[in-house]
């Protein structure tokens, strides 16, 4: 589905947003009090006119002291009756862009298999908000959500490639795809090893946009389904593994944002997506195998369920050969990150202080939260086994997100700066602007931070 605003119209009904304990608009009279309206977050009071027809509505934002919880409050306004609405006034403390983006995010529905878009309420873009930019951001987020929500039966490596080609064609980008045995010929052995047991051939999707300016390389993990391989996951752990390509989905969403908002101008973008399915067959890679990466580093496989860092390693090594000014990896990589920070806050890793500061500031400013974690040098020996250069799954299980990030950093050498985001890509319970299901994480923060990182 496509996010949209209503055209400005005199017939659009007024909607007042109010903080708890603030004065209600005089147009409402005593009606809200008679209805027990208390301005709880998302609470709506419909206002009648003198003839009993609907004349407008009031929606609560909750306590001003808890404003952070209401940053996408307008997403809840999707519960309004259908028709066109306009904000009668924007209360102090609520940014017009943020309010409007909340509305757009609240429109999202995944309708591929059930139902269709409903003819719900429509909002006139608030005064002061940048409608074109917000619609571009929302369209990109909807793309990410749709890709994650689609099950592996309809979103395997071939379908992920098709989605990438559709986006590349639309924005005028160049795309090349290396598939199957050609991965070995092109020295991408880890991608081949992880994906060779699947029904669909593994592949590397390589998208380029722009010919001048600083080079930004974005690498997204595209494991379209993860059984765990021969270290087979239990059924409960496998249930959400259609989302294991959330890094790839977020990378494509970020590419769309950069292109459609104009932020890609003056940059050279390269998006690399290793697209595989980690399956079980007679030719599956095994625990104890030692694989040699594109970079020449040998990797001892101590758990076939730690496959994401393997496919990323080859793609990152390829990207690093061009010495990008910034490399960013996006991956649904470790359960350890979720244990530490929960589903809402992805950790990110970055050694460059100005880049890390820009990401942290932007994440908070645009309500796309990230939390910085350390590339902790004393843990380096944990990823160095006795018989190979690297271990893909250190024993003990401690600091799993950090050791995974340290593993990946070995393959980013050559990039001037590197940041890794260990995202979850899934909203386990509905929240304002974030229905249960696939969700983008980090893309808006990166978009907002880039002017400071690559001016």
UniProtKB/TrEMBL annotation:
Keywords associated with the record: Aminopeptidase, Hydrolase, Manganese, Protease
One GO CC term, this protein: cytoplasm
Pfam families assigned: Peptidase_M17, Peptidase_M17_N_1
GO biological process, one term: proteolysis
Annotated ranges, domain Cytosol aminopeptidase: 303-310
InterPro entries per the UniProt record, alphabetical: Leucine_aapep/pepB, Macro_dom-like, Peptidase_M17_C, Peptidase_M17_N_1
CDD domains: Peptidase_M17
GO molecular function: manganese ion binding; metalloaminopeptidase activity
Superkingdom of this protein's organism: Bacteria
SUPFAM superfamilies in UniProt: Macro domain-like, Zn-dependent exopeptidases
Family, as annotated: Belongs to the peptidase M17 family.
Name this polypeptide is given: Leucyl aminopeptidase
Species, as recorded: Paracoccus tibetensis
